[in-house]
From TrEMBL:
Region of interest (Disordered), ranges: 286-320
Species of origin: Asanoa ishikariensis
Composition skew (Low complexity), residue ranges: 293-320
Pfam families xref list: VWA
Name of the protein in question: von Willebrand factor type A domain-containing protein
Length: 541
């Protein structure tokens, strides 16, 4: 039986499994051998996603070294949650937690002392204030699309910023940008940014705060660094790393039987001490022998695992909501991945239609709101332009440029002003194909390396509806195939509004260009779909 486990818990599993095998482990009378391999959760997630033909934001393709195990013990149920929400055929069994590591706010002790630790109980509002208005705090985070502790911290900070009423959106954006300024692709790289000298200048220039697991902090401090890290246990606690024991779908029945036996071993009392030696707590949040608790660490600590009902397959999942996770990661990607983008908005007559599920706001109004919120997330590093399209918009064209692609740093006001002034054209049709070709040529002409060059088109049309004829779908496909340049890719993202969108022809077009089609069957959900679409852009060109 092959077990893939997160690196920090793998030694404890291997020790317990060896004792079980040496004692004559059997499954229905058959001897069992257990092979435990350390695999980063993101690498196994990439394998699972690839097998099911889906993509997780920020995860990318499998690295070629990870393989599909019989049992997977990632560091967090959020991996299972993200995969099950993306891939309908992925339904692992068991999924119960076998360990826990609370997610804490890690600070060098001198920095923590400056804000009142350990005497003062630090609140989320204290931290938010430091992140959004202070200048002495240098925050960091491990890329949350690829790291469960980073994701947990991001979710917690975002939720707290969301409680600030009218200032919620600006606070959330400020937090994301502050964290992004110090993000690291790997946990080891982030930890290396903490101060390595007691010199005040070194402390001031180094990383001063980051969401990490308690295990990260204990392991870091065990190396006796010049400046230890303080672990701040804020309330409400972020979602803990909960180490679910997931038996993968399709596992051989005999191996699945063996997996049941190993699970019993890993939930026995003795296993708590094996976990303690690896700086981990038991699943109930208490610790065993050998655990070196950080100063002020409560026991128990962290969030318990929340188990789904039996009718959902009996698989345990973390307390995070999959919709919230997906939206948070989409927003993070939109904020942190600078791009060169042309937004193309449908102003045909049907965009004036009302949407009952959104208080009878028009489709045009909802589209404007989604685009405006998106623009608010984009940093000054972005370059954005704005077109509208319908039919006969002047000069024999079905499209019109309102703002050329330019840095958001100088064009934000113009973009906001033009967005707010857009109105549907009464009786206007949908010159979709001519507009796609013109937009593609425009973005390709000004293509820039080091950015995601893309077109984001928002339309409620059922397809091309051009009274003057224009290019056909077959003609458009031929043109796109002839002008596309693999060395200068331009992604076309089409967001369709309503349940009449005919996505078949649109899928054929984006298959040529790259990108994808996203349909908001309920136009009131366009904001969520917009963020999801932006987050699916490739990370590199």
């Amino acid at each position: 039986m092959n077990v893939a486990a997160a690196s920090e818990i793998a030694p404890a599993i291997e020790k317990a499994a060896k004792a079980w095998v040496d004692g004559g482990a059997q499954a229905d009378g058959v001897c069992v051998a257990v092979n435990v391999v350390q695999q980063e959760p993101v690498d196994v997630a990439a394998v699972v996603a690839g097998k099911h033909g889906v993509a997780l934001a920020g995860v990318g393709l499998a690295n070629g070294t990870a393989t599909m195990p019989d049992v997977w013990v990632p560091d967090s149920s959020t991996w299972l949650l993200r995969l099950t929400s993306a891939a309908q055929g992925f339904s692992p069994s068991n999924g119960q937690s076998i360990a826990r590591s609370p997610v804490v706010v890690a600070m060098p002790e001198p920095v923590a002392q400056q804000i009142g630790w350990p005497q003062k109980k630090i609140s989320w509002l204290d931290l938010l204030g430091q992140l959004t208005t202070g200048t002495s705090i240098k925050p960091g985070i491990v890329e949350p699309t690829r790291d469960a502790a980073g994701l947990s911290g991001l979710l917690a900070l975002g939720a707290q910023a969301g409680t600030l009423g009218a200032q919620a959106q600006s606070a959330q954006t400020a937090v994301l940008r502050a964290l992004a300024s110090g993000k690291s692709a790997l946990r080891e790289d982030l930890l290396a940014k903490f101060p390595r000298s007691t010199d005040p200048a070194s402390i001031a220039q180094a990383l001063s705060v980051a969401p990490l697991s308690e295990e990260d902090v204990v392991q870091y401090n065990s190396t006796k660094p010049p400046i230890p890290l303080a672990a701040l246990y804020l309330e409400p606690a972020p979602t803990s790393l909960d180490y679910p024991y997931a038996v993968m779908p399709g596992t051989d029945p005999m191996k699945a039987k063996a997996a049941e036996g190993l699970f019993r071993v890993l939930t026995a009392k003795d296993f708590k001490n094996d976990l303690g030696a690896q700086h981990l707590r038991a699943a109930d949040g208490t610790w065993g022998d050998g655990f070196e608790a950080p100063a002020g660490a409560p026991s128990p600590a962290g969030t318990p695992q929340v188990t789904k009902s039996a009718d959902s397959g009996g698989t345990a999942a973390g307390s995070a909501d999959p919709a919230v996770v997906n939206t948070t990661l989409a927003t993070w990607t939109a904020v942190t991945l600078p791009a060169r983008m042309l937004a193309v908005i449908d102003i045909s007559g049907t965009m004036g239609g009302k949407v009952p599920s959104a208080g009878n706001a028009t489709r045009m109004k909802l589209t404007q709101q989604a685009a405006t919120r998106g623009l608010g997330l984009f940093s000054d590093d972005w370059a954005v332009g704005l077109w509208v399209f319908s039919s006969n918009l002047g000069g024999g064209k079905d499209y019109k440029e309102l703002v050329p692609i330019q840095p958001v740093s100088s064009g934000r006001s113009a973009l906001l002003g033009q967005l707010g002034a857009i109105q549907p054209k009464k009786g206007g049709d949908t010159g979709l194909y001519d507009t796609i070709l013109a937009a593609y040529k425009n973005v390709q002409k000004g293509w820039q390396s080091g950015r995601v060059n893309s077109i984001v088109m928002l339309t409620d049309g059922i397809g091309n509806d051009d009274p003057d004829g224009g290019i056909s779908q077959a003609g458009l496909l031929r043109e796109l195939n002839s002008i596309k340049d693999k060395s200068k890719p331009v992604q076309l993202i089409i967001i369709g509004l309503g349940d009449e969108v005919n996505r078949g022809p649109l899928d054929q077009i984006t298959k040529v260009t790259g990108g994808g089609v996203f349909v908001a069957k309920d136009p009131a959900k366009i904001g969520e779909i917009f963020l999801q679409a932006i987050s699916r852009r490739p990370n590199t060109n």
